Amino acid sequence: MPDGGVLGAEIPSSTGGFAVILTRRGDRIMAFHNECPHAGRRLDWAPGKFLVEGAMLVCAAHGATFALDTGAGVGGPCRGAGLKAIAVQVVDGDVVAG
Ligand code: FES
Fold this sequence. Notes:
The structure is a single chain. By secondary structure, the protein is an all-beta fold. The chain has one domain: Rieske Iron-sulfur Protein (3-layer Sandwich). It has a four-stranded antiparallel sheet, with no helix packed on it. It has a four-stranded antiparallel sheet with strand order 4-5-6-7, with no helix packed on it. Bound molecules: FE2/S2 (inorganic) cluster.
């Protein structure tokens, strides 16, 4: 993933799986549930395709904005609610839960 990049991933599970967003800022990788706190929609406009404006991720549904490095809600209809983070770490070049 390039610095400043945003990727989508589908995580399989016994209950049907869920979608996540991965962001990279420098050496830091963050992961968030791909679910907007405004109306529960996915943030991507097509699977894995995200709107990015500078250091902000923009929800494709109604335009809420979130900080790429923290997931904090910055603007739009979410009234400051942020994305739900998932703990991850990089091990031998792979992003893994933890
Ligand atoms: S669902 Fe994201 S801004 Fe409405």
